[in-house]
Amino acid sequence: MRYALPDEPSIAACGGPWRMLDYALQAEIAPAVLARGSGMPGDGAQPPGDWLVSPAQYLQLLRNVLRQLDSPDTSFMLGQFLLPGADAALANALRHAGSALAALEILCSRPAQLSPLLRPRLHATGGQLVLYWTDSHGAPGLRPALVEMHMAAVVSLARWLGGRRLPWRFCFNRARPRHVAQHEVHLGPDLRFDCQLDAMLLELDAARQPWPGADAALSAAALAAAGEAVPSLLDALYSHLLAQVRDNPTLEGTSTAFGVSPATLKRHLARYGTTFQAELDQVRTHVALYLFQAHQADNEAVASYLGFHDAANFRRAFKRWTGSTPALLRAAMAS
After folding, report:
1. 308 and 267 assigned to the same domain
2. Is residue 120 domain-shared with residue 154, that is, in the same domain?
3. Residue 142 carries which DSSP code?
4. 205 and 66: one domain?
5. What CATH number corresponds to the domain at position 249?
6. Residue 333 clears pLDDT 80, i.e. is over it
7. Residues with Cβ < 8 Å from 297, sequence gap 6 or more?
8. pTM, whole model, 2 decimals?
């Protein structure tokens, strides 16, 4: 199984990294300070189209920009420049997407090019669309800013192409910040914190509303012309575990599927600041949340689906994964 590691140059510097740097340069901060450790030119010049930076360098650039600008709205403003991205074919595919749903399907089909730092994943059930985000390169200290950036990017893209702001609802896997004014200004008023995932929700009817620039043939042709990139290790691992979650995936079996030894897989994951068990627990948590919300499943049904011997074992495991019991979480979701 092919996958990319965080120090491998794979991201077009003239895309998101340059737009981030250019935005920060408007504050008249020395280019060399902003670019330090990022692989970007230290003179503030736009890099050529074939210049690549690694995910680790891109994340360092984000750290530099956030530190130097030190403003609560920086992450939201940066998000407005992320999409439609630097890849001309994918940008055209998005510009001619027929609806929000079509645009999100494109976004999720080419995450390494359009959203290299956080992986968007799309699910539709019960008349509702759920777009949720998982780590691509393991930057826990930057997670809140990354989520704000990417949510703002989707909101901005949909408003630009659709001509109006959609009635999104937002869930955050973090405590409610002391001030939420920037969230309300850039995202909208329907915010929920202390969730177990970072997600955007939209009614399917709204997601399917036609957009003014829709051209399905042009969008499909542009998407077909675009290349594909290798996913990050964390993206590939999440997808693998999600597909195998009912079969009690193990480190040994997973490392075999990835063509490496268990020790090598553990070493690679340590570079992201995570472990195999933590990634498996995250997938199990997300599957349990889906079953609770989409199917109103009880503990016994979820325990059986995930391969637990009984509901009591599942309840204990769920409390370990999330810090909450299934009953409390179901009540919070219902409210």
Report:
1. yes
2. yes
3. G
4. no
5. 1.10.10.60
6. no
7. 291, 305
8. 0.94
Q: The dihedral of CA 135, 126, 100, 98: what is its sign? A: positive
Quick one: pLDDT band at residue 334, thresholds 50, 70, 90? Answer: low
Indicate whether 70 pLDDT > 90: yes
For residue 247, the 8-state DSSP code is: G
pLDDT tens digits for range 125-138: 889 999 999 999 98
The encoded tokens of residue 154 equal: 């989707």
Q: For position 335, what pLDDT does the model report? A: 60
Phi and psi at 230, nearest 5°, equal: -70, 135
Backbone angles phi, psi at 70, to 5 degrees: 45, 55
Six-digit token string for 153: 């990017």
Give yes or no for residue 330 having a pLDDT over 90. Answer: no
Q: What is the DSSP letter of 119?
A: E
Using the 3D structure, point to which of 225, 260, 285 is the last residue of a domain.
225
**Lookup: tokens for 213:** 């620039």
In the chain, what's the furthest Cα-to-Cα distance?
A: 61
Number of independent structural domains in the chain: 3
Q: How confident is the model at residue 332 (pLDDT cuts 50, 70, 90)?
A: low
Are 52 and 96 within one domain? no
Mean pLDDT of the chain: 93
Instruction: Look up residue 143 and give its two tokens.
Output: 């997670």
Give 321's pLDDT tier (boundaries 50, 70, 90): very high
Domain end residue (candidates: 202, 225, 248): 225
* DSSP H or E segment with residue 220: helix 216-225
Domain that holds residue 163: 75-225
Assigned token pair, 4: 């990319």
Q: Does one domain contain both 80 and 153?
A: yes
Check pLDDT > 90 for residue 329. no
Contacts of 27 (CB under 8 A, 6+ apart): 68, 69
CA dist list (Å): 318 to 101, 115, 134, 140: 32, 30, 19, 21
